[in-house]
Amino acid sequence: MKPLEHQCFTLWITPRPGLTLSDELDFVRRLEDYLRERELEISGGPLHTVVSSASRSLTATDQVDLIVGLVRDPVVERVAVSPLLRSGSRPAEREAGYIEAPSLDVPVIALTILYGCGRVSAETVLQILGGFVRPAVVH
Description:
alpha+beta; Alpha-Beta Plaits
């Protein structure tokens, strides 16, 4: 019998400039606690990693919950996530598409509040953030 493949996604975190080592270590602990509470795992470093779960496929809700949690963290300048991928996949490249959320962007702040109040769904948040865009390539 073939092992069950779950959905996962790639996460890119851009920290604010000028952080101390202590700030970075505190952030990594907060991220690890967040992931453990939700039975999520990462493979790779904390700033560019694949987020998955051994017990289930991840969803748009997992993506948006993580985005919301991270943009509220004082260490994070911006967060980007890939579309959902099959488990066991290598980290996605940005060329495959991503959603980006700058933490100090007023529309992102408003959107996280609306999402937290249950006024918009996770899928709607991903659409409002622009969908999974691909960077322009100039030849």
